Amino acid sequence: MSNTFGKIFTLTTFGESHGEAIGGVIDGCPAGIELDLKAIQIEMDRRKPGQSKIVTQRKEPDEVRFLSGIFEGKTTGASIGFIIENVHQRSNDYSHIKDSFRPSHADYTYDKKYGNRDYRGGGRTSARETANWVVGGAVAKQAIPSIKINAYTSSVGDLFLEKPYQDLDFSKIEDNIVRCPDADVADQMISKIDKIRKQGDTIGGTVTCVIQNVPIGLGEPIFDKLHAQLGKAMLSINAVKGFEYGSGFCGAKMKGSEHNDIFNSDGSTKTNLSGGIQGGISNGMDIYFRVAFKPVATIMQAQHTIDKDGNIVEMHGKGRHDPCVVPRAVPIVEALAAMVLTDFIILNK
Fold first, then answer.
1. Where is pLDDT greater, at 34 or 108?
2. 140 lies in which domain range?
3. pLDDT band for position 93 (50/70/90)?
């Protein structure tokens, strides 16, 4: 089982949703970085469950405790070990799926691959694992302070934030519980999610991420293209079904004369349909991409599924689950983007 992300700046994680704790080890972090531990905890608070009426009501403080690699507030260059205790598990909520497989979950494939699964909250396959990623990303952000990474909710179901990111005020992202920087659209999104929640159903959406002040030259031209590594990172997030950067799929409808980014004399471009990356290498323009999340698979409605013997059985969702995962995914997207960029910056050095 692969538990390590990155090449030089790496994060290796452990733990299950309903185990005693989750945690990880960050390797390859340069020495001498002054870490703001309060800022790291703020990132954790953005992802943690129970933060509003439109997310899972599992109450986890998600307080991260660092065990090594930090002395007098600065990184030492040694492995940074950390732990996050699980304190609000309700494992009995999952007793009804002990011998059955939830539709569109990893239950069936995990059981067939490993022959032994922790059915409590999905065990290792749970999105609780992403708390570890946010720790890694929060450290990575502080390793590359000049690069600005902002993600936000850009759609919920068929509700879209139509404004281009250049017209948005990123300081408004945290002003509402859905993390959309447009107050009017945010209110509509919140109402839609709440309505879906009351129906015992779930809904998907998208997160847009904008990365600014990226130096020219990050990424390799063949198999380690910058956008390929960003795509791999985003597609590793639970519930993600799609990734596009720059013009994305809309670019497939255009002619070359419409799509080409024409150079200015200083090497910048008049347009940025390339999304800040050309030939797999950053070109100094803003990098922007969008990540699509499916509706959460656990719904509070009856569904048919199969048990371990292949019998058709009826299942009804129980427990505490997000009606829409998108608002809590925003800091996860930022975290993984930060780790990818930090890895490439260290590689460049």
1. 34
2. 4-348
3. low
Q: What is the mean pLDDT of the chain?
A: 92
pLDDT at 89: 57
Backbone angles phi, psi at 245, to 5 degrees: -125, 155
Nearest to 278 by CA among 234, 230, 225, 345: 225
Exposed e or buried b per residue across 219-249, where buried means at least 16 C-beta atoms within 10 angstroms of its C-beta: beeeeebbbbbbbebbeebbbbeebbbbbee
Give the DSSP H or E segment for 137: helix 130-143
Cβ 199 vs Cβ 323: under 8 Å: no
CATH number, domain of 93, equals: 3.60.150.10
68 Cβ contact list (under 8 Å, min separation 6): 78, 79, 80, 81
Q: What is the DSSP letter of 25?
A: E
**62 neighbors 84 (Cβ within 8 angstroms):** yes
pTM above 0.90, yes or no: yes
Domains in the chain: how many in total?
A: 1
Whether 21 and 128 have beta carbons less than 8 Å apart is answered as no
190: phi then psi, degrees, rounded to nearest 5: -60, -45
CB burial of 147-175 (b: ≥16 within 10 Å; e: otherwise) equals bebbbbbbbbeebebeeebeebeeeebee
Contact 179, 327 (CB under 8 A): yes
